[in-house]
Design a protein that fits this description.
- The protein is α+β, with helices and mostly antiparallel strands and about 400 residues long.
- It has 3 domains: about 150 residues, no CATH class; about 140 residues, Cysteine proteinases (Cathepsin B, Chain A), CATH 3.90.70; about 55 residues.
- The protein contains 11 helices and 12 strands.
- It has a 4-stranded antiparallel beta sheet, with no helix packed on it. A two-stranded parallel ribbon has the order 3-7.
- Helix 3 crosses helix 5.
- The two termini are about 20 Å apart.
Amino acid sequence: HLRGLYNLGNTCFLNATLQSLSSLDAFNGYVDSCAVALPDDARGSVHSVDAAIAAQLRHVLGLLAPQPRPVAAHSPRALISSLGKKSRWVASRSEQDAQELFQVLSSTLQTLCRDTEAPLFSLDFLASSRPIETSVVPARRRESSCKARDARCEPDSAHATSSPEPRGQGIDNPFLGMAASRTACVKCGYTAAIRHFTFDNLSLTVPRVQNTTVEECLALYTAIDRLDDFKCRRCTIAATLARVKSDAAQRKVDLAALEGRPKRARQLAAAAETLLEQQRRLENALTSDPEADLGDIRLSAPPPGISTRQTMVARTPRILVLHLSRSIYLPTGGTAKNPARVRLQRFLDVSPFATTGHISTSASKPISRPAIPVDMYSPESLAKARDRNCLYRL
């Protein structure tokens, strides 16, 4: 039996989010770890609001666990009150966005666990790979009884301080993944260093069609975009080098024309020497390291060019949160909702949208060659998906 939540006036967005999160074992464990890892004086610290949210969230999740008998619905008024102290829109009477609520909850837990989390760019974080059984999003609620989480039904229970996870060992955020972003110049072929950043959800634009799929939304997110206003670092250095060479040549001509004006000649000679030094630094940067610090050299704007940018998933999280953005921005400045129907399959294979061991720096090619899609009826294909940690159950 499952417990319901009362709608306290346009709080359906909160109820839907809590019911969804409560079905995820990894998230329940994460909330438990964040709550018990807090120091004893957390309620009186600057994190008191966040600590109260974590405690109330833990309480509600415990109540939403499967029950052995029919139970009455719960009123999450205390959690809403705690959330209202952090984000006042949560406590308002107007209808709100579930994704914004998720961001509030995620950032709150992230702040609380910041001191206990493992470094984001540690080798363990980058190399960790979990089997499909622990990385998929469960389609059904856990069948474990409420006894396993009885202690969580009271936010101030004695269990809240027993057997805490040792601080410093790191708390694994199940939402945390990593994306890779590459920007490359079509004109000169230069590719800046591939940058990595962490995410706890991916916001996908829903295409303006009648019917689409999550895979098509992900394909749009990871597509190679054309940039017309990006200034390539290598092209910028090349333009600056051309200007410095031209200025240095002009100084030589001016210096040769100066006869009988030794003071002016010395000034031009010093300026010419400075330009030659800048020329050497620019040539070195152009051939070896375009990202090198060029100090006080004034950079020139390069001629208009085209660059491309692409983002792909570099490390998949245990729980993949996708936000389908349906906002349409009209030429008049207003907005409308995209009514496209998004079809959901039982499984989501993200391997075509994730990086592999083959990295490309070409502006016209993907960061990585797409992996072979998973064959749901092939044990070998499923085993490879398990190794890549790229298959999720919707």
